[in-house]
Amino acid sequence: MTIIDIPAGWPADEAAARALQRELRGRLVLDEPGPEPGTGHVTGLDVAYDDERDLVAAAAVVLDARTLDVVEETTAVGRVSFPYVPGLLAFREIPTVLAALDSLTVDPGLLVCDGYGLAHPRRFGLASHLGVLTGLSSIGVAKNPFTFTYDQPGPDRGDFSPLLADGAEEVGRALRTQSGVKPVFVSVGHRVSLAHACAHTLLLAQRYRIPETTRHADSLCRRALKAALGGGP
DNA sequence: GCGACAG
DNA sequence: ATCTTGTCGC
């Protein structure tokens, strides 16, 4: 099993990482609607950690956006490339996630990330970062509101309310994917509109709160991590 | 200065 | 994220 190395020139500290985010932020494209919901491919991405052994396993699972059938799955294992710092999550996951994406043989279509895109202290979260690096459309679907505020959306599936930064700027939406269940937090990553990002999320979360893409990727990266642990040391 | 803080 | 059994429910 190959273990992905941390790239040369990778940010050595928090200041360098923040500077890189501000630089890459300039390449973010926010004026495209993105792929039509329900068509083409959608790819779920997620990672699992073993801080003890300094390992991170990433999974990419491509689904048919219309049927939600699995089209292809890949994994990659790497060294943990950054400590967890709120606002710098991307630096912890990106090298290994990119390796998993690189080994796909089909078009990933829309990237669905476990975390945020525009809803970020510098408006450049994981989903935006991955979008810019790959050039692909991307969205972020997070399970927690991070530092943002929102009013409770209506009780029905599809109801939503704005996710606000500084109490005023809409950086995403609290979207109810299942009636009577806590909402998820959707934000635009790269080359997708917020309306489409929410439409994609609803199509991917017809049965559970979390999108099928993320659910598949979550279980796969956990299995990949266990496999790496069992067959490595 | 202190607390909060995606995964 | 991760540590973790049984349990309630479809």
From TrEMBL:
<comment type="similarity">
    <text>Belongs to the endonuclease V family.</text>
</comment>
<feature type="binding site">
    <location>
        <position position="114"/>
    </location>
    <ligand>
        <name>Mg(2+)</name>
    </ligand>
</feature>
<keyword id="KW-0234">DNA repair</keyword>
<dbReference type="InterPro" id="IPR007581">
    <property type="entry name" value="Endonuclease-V"/>
</dbReference>
<dbReference type="GO" id="GO:0004519">
    <property type="term" value="F:endonuclease activity"/>
</dbReference>
<keyword id="KW-0479">Metal-binding</keyword>
<dbReference type="Pfam" id="PF04493">
    <property type="entry name" value="Endonuclease_5"/>
</dbReference>
<comment type="function">
    <text>DNA repair enzyme involved in the repair of deaminated bases. Selectively cleaves double-stranded DNA at the second phosphodiester bond 3' to a deoxyinosine leaving behind the intact lesion on the nicked DNA.</text>
</comment>
<keyword id="KW-0378">Hydrolase</keyword>
<feature type="binding site">
    <location>
        <position position="46"/>
    </location>
    <ligand>
        <name>Mg(2+)</name>
    </ligand>
</feature>
<keyword id="KW-0963">Cytoplasm</keyword>
<protein>
    <recommendedName>
        <fullName>Endonuclease V</fullName>
        <ecNumber>3.1.21.7</ecNumber>
    </recommendedName>
</protein>
<keyword id="KW-0255">Endonuclease</keyword>
<feature type="site" description="Interaction with target DNA">
    <location>
        <position position="84"/>
    </location>
</feature>
<keyword id="KW-0540">Nuclease</keyword>
<keyword id="KW-0227">DNA damage</keyword>
<keyword id="KW-0460">Magnesium</keyword>
